[in-house]
Give the backbone structure.
Amino acid sequence: MKDIADDLSISIGTVDRAIHNRGRINSITQARIMSRIEEMGYKTNTLARTLRKNQASKITLIAPTYNYFFQDIARGVSESFAELAGFPVVLDIIAQDSENDPIKQLRDFDKALESEPGGIILVPLHPFLLRGSINKAVERSIPVVTMNLDSADSKRICHVGQDSYHTGGIIGHLFGKFLRGRGRVAILTGISDLFSWQHRTEGFLGTLSKYYPQIEVAEINPFSNDAQIAYEISKILLLSDPSLTGLFANTTAGTIGIGLAIRDFNKCEQVVTVCYDTQNEVMDLLDVNAAIATVTQNPYMQGYYAAKIMGRILLESSPPKDEFYYVRADVILNREHYNLNTRMVIDP
C-alpha cells in the first residue's frame, strides 16, 4: 500500500479505504488507485491482515457428511488443516445431512459469508443455485474452492475432484475389453444439473464410439438418483431384452441398482456393469460377480488437496496455477477378473 501511495502521491489511508471499499473517497481517486493496483499486481497479504487483527482466519467447509464417501472428504480436509498447526487458521465445518435440500445449503453458504471467513471450501450439491452466492463471495475477496462437484460457470477459484470424462472413458474401456468389442449396452443416467454425471456419460459414449464401434448403445434411460428406481428399470431391461450384454449408470446409486438386478435375475455371466467407489453395497456386488469392477474417486485426497490449496492462498497469498486439480481414478476388479492380463489403453 505504501508503494501505491508513494506512486500516486496520496496517503496510505486513502489507498486502504479504496482497497477495502470503506467510502470517504471520491470516485476518480478510487479508480486511479484500483487501476494502479491492477498494473502493479498488488495482492492482499491475508496472513499479515490476520496477525494485525490478532485473530485466526476462519476457513469454512460446507459439505455433506451423511455417508462414508463425504466423511472421507471431510477427514481429508481436517487432516490437511492439522498440518497447519501453529498458523492462525481455524476450520469451521457446516455439515449437510441430505443432498435433497438445496435451500439449506444456500442458506448455510450465505450465513457463512456473513461471518467473513478467510475462505470457503465447498461441495456444491446444487451448483446452479449456488452460483450467485459463490460469485458474491469471490467479489468480496473470499476465495471459494469447490471439490467433488463443481460450479464451473461461477467465479470459484479452482476445483478439486475427478476428471469425470476420463473416468467415463475408463469404464468404457472396461466394458469394451470384457465384452471383447461386441455387444448391446443400455444406459441409465441420473437427472441432474451436475456436470460430473453428464461428463461420465459423455466419456463412456465417446470411448465406445472411438474404440468399440461394434458395441451398440441400446437406449438411454433417465432416472432420479435412486437405487430402487435404477433396480426397477434394470429389471425391465434384463427381462425384456435377452440380447443385452451391458448396463452403464453414471451415478453410484444407479450402479448399485443395476448390480442388484443383475444378481437377483441371475445375469452375472451375461451382463456387464461397473460401479463407483468402495462402500459395502458395491463390494458385495463385486464379491458375487454382479459387477466386474469399481472405479474409485479418492475422496480423502480430494479433501486433502482442496484444503492444501486454500492454505496456500491464505498463508502465502499464492493463488492456484490451474483451474482444475484431478485425483487419481483407481480400478478394482472383482475376484473373477482381478488376475486377468488385460491391457488398458486409455485415450490421452
Observations:
- Residues 2-42 form one domain.
- DSSP finds 13 helices and twelve strands in the chain.
- The chain has three domains: 2-42, 48-162+300-317, 164-296.
- The CA atoms of residues 227 and 257 lie 4 Å apart.
